[in-house]
Amino acid sequence: MKSFTPKSALTALVSLALIAPVAATAAATTAPAPQAAALAQPAKGVQMPAEYVKTLARSAYVWGWPLVNMQNRFNAITKAPYPGKLNGVLPAAPRGQISMLNDYIDPSQNFIACPNQDVAYGLGFFSLDEEPVVIQVPDFGDRFWVYALYDQRTDQFGELGKPYHSKPGFYLLVGPNWKGEKPAGIQAVVRSSTALANGIPRVFMDDTAADRKAIQPLLNQVVAYPLSQFDGKMKTVTWADSKAIQGPKSSGGGETKWVVPEKFFDQLGAVLDAVPPLPGEEALYAQYRSLLDAGAKDPAVKKLMVDTAKQAEEDTIKQFHQWKHNGVPAGNGWNRSVNNAQWGLDYFNRTGTSKSNMFDNRPNETQYFYTDNDAAKVQLDGKNSYEVTFAAGQEPPVQGFWSMTLYNKHHFFYPNELKRFSLGTKNKDLKRNADGSLTLYVGAKSPGKAKESNWLPAPKDSFSLYIRAYWGKAGITDGSWQPPVIRKVR
């Protein structure tokens, strides 16, 4: 697990509620668990000292940030028409359906940090206990694809994609309380652990006009709809005709503010009701409910909770934006993701990823490598020029594809005349060196016409680099592959 010490935040994080599940799990391996009915629960109506309120409120904010984030995305994105695009750039659809892009994601979007320019994305949010959803899988042939399905904790559920050898056809997504038989014509039933869930299809596309044309019939069959509309026939939607709607907007160049500290504790209770505790989290939930109860009875306690949430946003959540707090060292100054999309009790990485690059794929589907710094541990800056050389045979070993993406200081694309934001498998005009190695050039200044096909344009200030390895082979899966050195050349 990654570690850092942001002012007083880590002390608060581990001093109380967030260690409860770990302690409970450890104890369960050494002694019989007491009967649940015999365990005393936090008393209601107690007068909590101010420091206790702040400690518990801070841990609740860090723990609950990803779950409230998911709830607020659901609330905003499901207001879209069908088919729709939020602010004209993000796929969006009413509850129980998805919308697909018919090209790479628009470089101007700021609804989701660290998007890629390797796939055509889809997005949909579901309330699966209210309405099970059928999702269609066309015959993608040899093309890489994966439908990442997330519960409200941002854990993936189900296995649907090329890494799982999934067959074309129809799949039924259901909630934790759904009871029923698999309908005729459905390949499989896929169950979420929470009623609120979302799906993000990713379909690989080469950066060529020919592949953009070839992929359209496939994308138009990536459709989801309530079970009541299932008739056993493959439906088609022309996603190029999606309508734009207005949604939340960001200020200052960063990601849309999905979690608002001032409103957090007004939303947490509903989240605790909707998301059942994982084994070992029962005490955690009881502590947070006792806090909400105290805040509901005493305006001074509620104000202290809100003030603590605002402070935690500043001195804890914002620090997760830095890549040194994301994952574990991967060599040559890079970090790599861990536990991605299967967080369990790893609240640190769950919240860190929700802030810096939400909606990772599982490690077997995608491994992520990222850095803010060059080989000398100095912040990457576009006023400098850099070379990133993969030795012959040392590009990321994958069965799917790989890419290296450049993000600005907010983890979004940098607009440039080449309209180029990443390089990798999708690019068919990369030039190799005489020895078979591959050098990518990074900086605000062109490396020269002869090398421009391998150039990632950078802003004239700080930026970061991010390598994706989809469906990794040995080296990626066992952690032995190391990303290349980032060498400053001028």
TrEMBL record:
UniProt keyword Signal present: yes
Superkingdom, natural source: Bacteria
Bilayer-spanning residue ranges: none
InterPro entries: DUF1214, DUF1214_C_sf, DUF1254, DUF1254_sf
Record organism: Jeongeupia chitinilytica
Residues of the DUF1214 domain: 365-473
Swiss-Prot/TrEMBL keywords: Signal
Pfam families: DUF1214, DUF1254
Endpoints of the signal sequence: 1-26
Protein's UniProt name: DUF1254 domain-containing protein
Limits of the DUF1254 domain: 97-226
